[in-house]
Structures are given as C-alpha cells and as structure tokens.
Amino acid sequence: MSWFILLLTIALVCGSAPVFADDDERYLNCMKSFDCGNIKGVGYPFSGSDRPDYCGYPGFELGCSNQDPEITIMRSTYKLLGINNQSRTLNVSRSDYTENLCPALLSNTSLNPNLLNYTSDHAEVTLYYGCPSPSAPALSSQFTCDINDTVMMGYFITVNLSVISMTDPSLISYLTTCNNSVKVPALQSAVMPILANPTVAQLLEAINQGFELEWSANDSLCDTCKSSGGQCGYNQTTTAFTCYCADQPQGFECSASPQAPSQSTKKKSRNSPLEIGLSSAGAVIGAFVGCWMLAFIQRRRRKAALEKTEELPIATPSSKGLATSTNLSQTTPSLTSLKSDIDKGSTYFGVRVFSYDELEEATNFFDSSRELGDGGFGIVYYGVLRDGHEVAVKRLYENNMKRTEQFMNEIEILAHLQHRNLVKLHGCTSRHSREFLQID
C-alpha cells in the first residue's frame, strides 16, 4: 500500500509540470485556435489573436473587433460571417456597406486569385455615384449620398451591362457619365429578390448576407502534416509551407518516432492560464497530501510493530511439549524477560538459549558470504560455535510483523522433532526482536 501511495505522489508531482514542457514553442502556439464571437475553433490557414502569423498562410489574417470577427483581404477589411473547413470556403461581407450605400471611400472588391476565388453562387451589384441630372427615366433604383459634404445622386443595377445595352443603349450612355462606379459582391440567392423590389433596404439586406470565397493555401500539404501529428504553418524566412512537430519543424510531415498528442491532450493545451494555474496548484496540494499520508501510514506501522513486539506474549509450551527452562515464567513472559534470561543463560523447550554476541562471533557478524539460503521467514547462515560445533543459524526477517509468534512456534515444533533424516534444533536466542535458531 505504501508503494502505491508513493507512486501516486510521484505521479501527482510530475502531473503538475507542463504537459508539453519540452515541445517546440511554435508547435504549441499553432495548436491554439482563433475564437471571436460566433466564429470558434479556426486553425490553418488563418492566423490572428492567439495564433501568430507563422501559424497561418500569408493573406489570411483574422481580427476581432468588439467580438466581431474580421478578415483583411488586399488591405480591405471584411466582416467574417462563417468558415467551412470541409469545403474550404468562407463567407464575408463588405464592412463599409453595413448600414448604408455611402462609404467614405469608394473602392471595388479586389481578390488575390492565387488565394481566394468566388464560388459558383456569386453575383455582383454595381453602384454608380455622382450621376448627372436629370435622372435616368428607365431606372427606379435611385439613391442619394452625402459623402464628404457633397450630395450626389446614384443608382444600382443587379444585371450585367451587356444585357442592358441590348435593350436600352441610351441607359448605358447615361451611366457612363456618372463619376464613380463600385462593384459589390453578393450571393445570387440574395440578389434575386432585388429584381422584384429594387429598394435600398433590399439591397443592404443582400449585401449584409455576404458572399462566398473558396481558399487555396497548400491544403493538401496541411492534411499530410495533420495526419502525422503536426501543426500546419508557414516559414516566413523560406516563404514555404512548414509542418511544426513536437520536437522541431519539418518540411511536410512529422517523423514516426514522436508520439502525436491525443485529442484530450490537445484540448488541455488550449486551456486558459487560470485553468492551468488551478490544475498545477491542485497537483501540488495533492502531492503534499500524498506525502503526508505516506509519512503518517509509515509512522503508524512502525508504532504498531513496536507495540506488537513489546507487548506480544511468548507462546507457552503445549501440554505435550518438553519441560521449559526454570528461568522462563509459566505464564506469558514478554520479550524483555526473555532478553534478561538470555543474558543469564537458560534453555527454552529443552534447547539452549545463546547470547546474541556469541552468534555474531559464530557467523563472523552475519557475513553475507556465509549465507546458506532462505528458510521460512528468515535467512540461514553457516556458523561455528566457541566449542567448535558447526551449526546453521537462521535469522528471521526484520520486516516480518508476526516474527515473534512465528519464532516461538518454530522453536516449539523443532524442539519436538526427533528423526534421523531431519535437522536437530541446537539452540535459539533473541535480541531486540532479532530472533535466531541454531540448527545442527
């Protein structure tokens, strides 16, 4: 039981250390996810917040403003509405068109085609600003803006200009006289209702639903890296994909020798500093409690063993046994009385009681080279008494809790044995619970 408590204590102490104390820092950092608002658990190819830039692919930086997730694309900020890791698509919307159609800066939507591309559910709404008077009679989608203290009239259309040019060429000529035009992406499913109800409110609703983009950022390499237990990232120095492993970064996958962390371990690595601190404190307290329990149990055992040694009565001979020494009491003498009798010299169950010093001398202080083997409950030594008598001295184990009772029983049994094929008990002794039998 004490060994179990000791091992438990060691485990608690070891458990208070960081799980990934020897792991690569970049590997640990890239295990963290981006969490903001309703967007949670975002990993590669994105970076931002707790994820350093080397954990994501360039061009996929995320931000969090008042629990509103954002993404920067070609130096323009978009609201991040959703991410689908399976289809590798994200849903974003123009943050400058959230409340009205009059942003302070008029700019088109620009993408890096090597990284992001529109999905098939894509449509564009074209907005024209600073159009001249009188208004175009064929358009009902008119709006006005006050941008930088300048009031201007504008229009929006949801169909391709090539279609309009076939039906009304004069309208195309009019729209080309407007000062600016901006193309805002949207979903086809969201734009369709505008055809029947071309109002500003309907257009804002469609724009705020966002549009879908499909990303491409060494995703197949990342799949290989993840399957080997690594974390995907990007080396800013070599400008290449990197697989961060527990021991060190690798090219595309981790070697087979390091063990990949389990899902439960990954979850632990994302714990907040408060959770880690509480866990460590609990482990340290547990270690102290375990050490105290171990010391307490061992102290109780030592005390119990001492009391048992001092108080356990020496078994009296049975009615069938030989007459005992006159120096021993007929009742229940203690080990202390037996020790005093040893000093005086006596017999017990008809066998001689030797002094402890004489047995030390006979066995050369219980030299290990004189060990003959292990008997029941003790080690047997070869010895030569002062009278030249050769004997086998059996020394009972110290850690035997019932050694006194066993010692006395063995004396009684051996004292009665008389057979040519069996050893003969020559004597015994006891000194501070170190019991001995001397056998011819």
Please outline the helices and strands.
Elements (H helix, E strand, L loop, with lengths): L1 H14 L9 H5 L4 E3 L2 E4 L19 E4 L2 E6 L2 E9 L4 E6 L21 E3 L4 E7 L12 E6 L2 E8 L3 H7 L1 H7 L4 E7 L1 H9 L3 H9 L2 E5 L3 H9 L3 E5 L4 E5 L4 E2 L12 H7 L3 H39 L23 H10 L1 E3 L2 E3 L2 H7 L8 E5 L2 E7 L5 E7 L6 H14 L8 E7 L2 E6 L1
Parallel strand pairs: 17-21
Antiparallel strand pairs: 1-2, 3-4, 4-5, 5-6, 6-12, 7-12, 8-10, 8-11, 9-10, 13-14, 14-15, 16-17, 18-19, 19-20, 20-22, 21-22
Outline of the structure:
This protein is of the alpha+beta class and 440 residues long.
Q: What would you note in describing this structure?
A:
By secondary structure, this protein is an alpha+beta fold. Among the domains are: 65 residues; 105 residues, 2-Layer Sandwich (Phosphorylase Kinase, domain 1). 31% of the residues lie in helices and 27% in strands. The chain is built from 12 helices and 22 strands. It has a 7-stranded mixed β-sheet with strand order 16-17-21-22-20-19-18, with helices on both faces. Strands 3-4-5-6-12-7 form a 6-stranded antiparallel β-sheet, with no helix packed on it. Helix 3 crosses helix 4 and helix 5 runs antiparallel to helix 6. It is rod-shaped, with a radius of gyration of 46 Å. 25% of the residues are buried. About 13% of the residues have low confidence.
Number of strands: 22
CATH topology descriptor of the domain at 335-439: Phosphorylase Kinase, domain 1
Helix content range: 25-40%
How much strand content do the residues show?
25-35%
Biggest pleated sheet: 7 strands, mixed
Gyration radius (Cα, Å) is 46 Å
So, CATH architecture of the domain at 335-439?
2-Layer Sandwich
Structural class: alpha+beta
Q: Can you list the strand order of the major beta sheet?
A: 16-17-21-22-20-19-18
Residue runs with pLDDT of under 50 for 5 or more positions: 13-21, 257-270, 309-344
Distance between the termini: 39 Å
Number of helices: 12
What is the 3D shape?
Answer: rod-shaped
Main location: membrane
EC number: 2.7.11.1
Organism: Populus euphratica (Euphrates poplar)
Keywords: ATP-binding, Glycoprotein, Kinase, Membrane, Nucleotide-binding, Signal, Transferase, Transmembrane, Transmembrane helix
